Amino acid sequence: MPHVEFHNIVKRFGRVTVLEDLNLRVEDGEFLVLLGPSGCGKTTLLNMLAGLQEVTEGSIVIGGRDVTDLDPKDRGLAMVFQSYALYPTKTVRGNLKFGLSAQKLDRSEIERRVQWAAKLLQIDRLLDRKPAQLSGGQRQRVAIGRALVKNVDVFLFDEPLSNLDAKLRTEMRLEIKRLHQELAKTIVFVTHDQVEAMTMATRIAVMDAGVIQQIATPDEIYERPANLFVARFIGSPAMNTLKTTAVRKNGCIGAVHAPTGVHMDLSAYPFLAQPRDGDPLVIGLRPEHFTIGCDARGDVGARFSLPVRYTEKNGSDVTAFVDSADGELIAVRFDHKHHHVPKTGDVVEIHFPKDRFDVFDAVSEKRI
Ligand SMILES: Nc1ncnc2c1ncn2[C@@H]1O[C@H](COP(=O)(O)OP(=O)(O)OP(=O)(O)O)[C@@H](O)[C@H]1O
Ligand SMILES: [Mg+2]
User: Fold this and answer.
1) N or C terminus of the chain with fewer C-beta within 10 Å?
2) Ligand 1 atom 17: the closest Cα is on which residue?
3) Domains in the chain with CATH codes
4) Cα–Cα distance for residue pair 357/261, rounded to 1 Å
5) Does the reported pTM lie above 0.85?
């Protein structure tokens, strides 16, 4: 199975630079998700890999072969687009076969592949229908099928699920993941949806403004975000980030949040670089790690007593937004089966465990 390499990729449209010296290696059989906000360059990168857009500088290598100047059809990959781009006048079978028109195959082989893909995607009973007679999810499967029949080693997906409703998205997510496990092919999957990235990827490359901010496993990205951008981009509700000042006392490191006067005990934090007394730090606190009321677990690293601005209920999940006294709200998530839900104006005591802080340098915005 081939791996994919991007070497020093630069992409300019006229005078606008969209990607600047990007380097990335996708391993054999990996499910790599390119995740980032709208306009960060995900589609551009995927299109260059597919050969649909030219590279301004740099090179692309697939399985050890430089493909930078090769035609799309000679690169040994298949792409599924966001708009399914099915032929409305062709049947499902016709659409699937069309994916093979560039390859010179005999009829029985074409039919064998169509049947195989249709069965795998559970659209074998729909082969004689036209796209207009299919649901959104079924059309999406045909679009995936058209890539599958090509029998290549690298599959590219550009936001294939964004046109589907929430339930179908969840189903298709599982299905694509299952396909990856069954076929063991290399997949590069573009999305701006962090849930898709977290649930499907073997590794995620988080992009912002044409630059890869971090590339790591979903767990690593969630547990140890490399900078504030990644920290705030992954997680729902987003990670709380409080501006603080480092304090060193008797060899122990802490941080003080001036608006509330709260001291955070950072003695359990595995610093990459030790801050000096007085350094500005941003402390990250994930909403789900707080405990509320007298329920504190483990070693408490910070205690706040703050008024609730409003609460949001989602099934058994409740998020309380408390006022951090500097104009920002702190999101605190808990399960309402175990707590009574505070009302606006109630002052709640919340605790944050000592071993759950994330610490960033306020100037470089990097994890320290
Ligand atoms: N043909 C073009 N000419 C000029 N600028 C372009 C062109 N295509 C894309 N861009 C710009 O390049 C940047 C990256 O676009 P791209 O489509 O790769 O973003 P994306 O990450 O896929 O976003 P989305 O999530 O919205 O699909 C954007 O700022 C876009 O405006
Ligand atoms: Mg895009």
Assistant:
1) N
2) 43
3) 4-233 (3.40.50.300), 240-361 (2.40.50.140)
4) 17
5) yes
